[in-house]
């Protein structure tokens, strides 16, 4: 567009001056000269407008990113935080007319209490194994180099390994004690830790701060889920699935488009900030799902209540929340240095 404008503006005065010197002034009225200047000026403005209208979608998408893309994401997280604090005060202070899971806990038999305790025990064990695995891999240069490969084959193998380990872990029937189910659970958590090992390059202080923030978010949302009516968040399955697809597509798109462009910054903001809000809502859903399963599972069923499968949902939610908080704290959410 600038080339077209420069060419037009350069040609106009040259044409006028050459015609003025080549012909006697008595043979060229002044009115015609003014009309020619006006005609050329109108043509220039028309060409400029046409060039502006011809701006392609690629030029718009690849334009430098402004602060608006990240500000929208920050506003979304701030709004979600306000709603979460409001829900915590509303349900925590007993202002709801319906009984929450915490109110019903006094009526639970010991078996239901034990199921919930076992679920959160395995959840804590998953987090500990993941952290230990990430630290161990980060101290092994060969494994660290393997985890940091950016080729499509390496990414595909990593995804396939994580998904396959999760499917194997879920498919094995649960038995009390230490058996194949527990081994598969430990392997699954360890593989996740290896995948997260490159995050150690962010630095220990930042990751510790992100872990504390994650603990606060998970603790607060778990309290909301336990104080709210027992099926308040169990109806969010459909919208959450749609949101997950949207965030996943944004995450894939941000792999191809740098966050310095307008479209890349928008996709990155949806993936980080939108994902943080989405997985916070998933945590509410999965927490009440654990309570519902623990209450409704028949005590003499052929297949026992599985605390390992029950904890995988909140474990994945916590990992995703931690990753996004660490990315925001590292400056990946718009505060680029």
From TrEMBL:
InterPro entries: Bax_inhibitor_1-related, GHITM. It is found in: Membrane. It comes from the Eukaryota. Keywords: Membrane, Transmembrane, Transmembrane helix. The keyword 4Fe-4S does not apply. The chain crosses the membrane at residues 120-139, 151-171, 183-204, 210-228, 240-257, 263-285. It is a multi-pass membrane protein. It holds the Pfam family Bax1-I. One of its GO terms (cellular component) is mitochondrial inner membrane. The keyword Ligase does not apply. Its main location: membrane. Belongs to the BI1 family. This is GHITM. It comes from Mytilus coruscus.
């Amino acid at each position: 567009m600038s080339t077209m404008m420069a060419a037009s503006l350069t040609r106009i005065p040259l044409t006028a001056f050459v015609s003025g010197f080549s012909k006697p002034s008595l043979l060229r009225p002044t009115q015609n000269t003014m009309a020619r200047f006006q005609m050329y000026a109108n043509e220039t403005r028309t060409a400029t407008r046409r060039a502006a209208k011809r701006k392609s979608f690629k030029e718009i998408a690849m334009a430098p990113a402004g602060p608006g893309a990240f500000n929208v994401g920050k506003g979304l997280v701030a709004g979600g935080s306000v709603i979460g604090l409001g829900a915590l005060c509303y349900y925590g202070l007993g202002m709801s007319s319906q009984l929450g899971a915490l109110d019903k806990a006094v009526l639970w038999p010991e078996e239901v209490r034990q199921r919930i305790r076992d679920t959160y025990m395995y959840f804590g064990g998953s987090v500990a194994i993941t952290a230990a695995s990430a630290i161990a891999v980060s101290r092994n240069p060969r494994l660290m180099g393997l985890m940091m490969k950016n080729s499509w084959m390496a990414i595909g193998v990593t995804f396939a390994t994580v998904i396959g380990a999760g499917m194997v872990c879920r498919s094995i029937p649960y038995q009390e004690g230490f058996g194949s189910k527990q081994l598969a659970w430990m392997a699954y958590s360890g593989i996740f830790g290896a995948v997260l090992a490159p995050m150690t390059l962010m630095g220990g202080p930042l990751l510790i701060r992100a872990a504390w923030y994650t603990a606060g978010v998970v603790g607060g949302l778990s309290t909301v889920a336990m104080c709210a009516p027992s099926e308040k968040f169990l109806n969010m399955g459909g919208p959450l699935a749609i949101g997950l697809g949207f965030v996943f597509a944004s995450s894939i798109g941000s792999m191809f488009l740098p966050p310095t462009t307008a479209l890349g910054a928008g996709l990155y903001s949806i993936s980080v900030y939108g994902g943080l809000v989405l997985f916070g809502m998933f945590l509410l859903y999965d927490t009440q799902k654990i309570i519902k399963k623990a209450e409704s599972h028949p005590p003499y069923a052929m297949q026992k209540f599985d605390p390992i499968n029950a904890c995988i949902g909140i474990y994945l939610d916590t990992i995703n929340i931690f990753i996004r908080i660490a990315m925001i704290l590292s400056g990946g959410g718009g505060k680029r240095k």
